[in-house]
Amino acid sequence: MIVNESSLDTLFIGFKTAFDAAFAGAQTAYKEIAMVVPSSTREELYGWLGQFPQLREWLGDRVIHNLSAHSWTILNRKFESTIAVYRESIEDDRYGVFAPMFRAMGKAAAELPNELTFALLASGFTNLCYDGQNFFDTDHPVRTGASSYVSVGNYQAGAGTA
Q1: What's the pTM?
Q2: Of 13, 57, 107, 110, which shows the fewest CB atoms inside 10 Å?
């Protein structure tokens, strides 16, 4: 094959097609337990208000509740994998051997969120969340009034390994 702009465009389309098909066909599960939020900046600040007070029958004066504000910042990270396709391979029409590599790259790219999400989940017994407690813990402080808190848990002890 003669190496020129047209032949390189054709190769790129073929490699991209192999990548995209494998990406689309990869089995992933992270969306079942994680929220996907698009991001176009280097970090995302997620803010939310604390627990909404329960409704009550209005008798007498209003009772004003102060909501607590929380936030968590997630820094975006970049990932890459680069493959060199040598000019001689193109000139000798050997570019077909690269398609499986681009399919593997597409599959790996689609599965990366699984690896990251489930690694975070597994570290939830040791990594801290916004309230300074481990993500999985028995005593997360939750405001119940202007200055009163209760402990709530999202962890249930069992007989086996977590």
Answers
A1: 0.73
A2: 57
How many residues comprise the chain? 162
Q: How many CB atoms lie within 10 A of CB 50?
A: 13
**Predicted confidence (pLDDT) per residue in 109-154, tens digit:** 999 999 999 999 999 989 988 888 898 888 888 777 667 788 888 8
Strand extents, DSSP E, 61-118: 69-75
Q: What is the Cα–Cα distance from 133 to 128, expressed in whole angstroms?
A: 5
Are the C-beta atoms of 11 and 90 separated by less than 8 Å? Answer: yes
Sequence letter at residue 135: F
Question: Tokens in use for 48?
Answer: 């939310």
Nearest to 129 by CA among 41, 113, 53, 120: 120
How far apart, in whole angstroms, are the C-alpha atoms of residue 54 and residue 89? 69
Strand partners of residue 128: 134
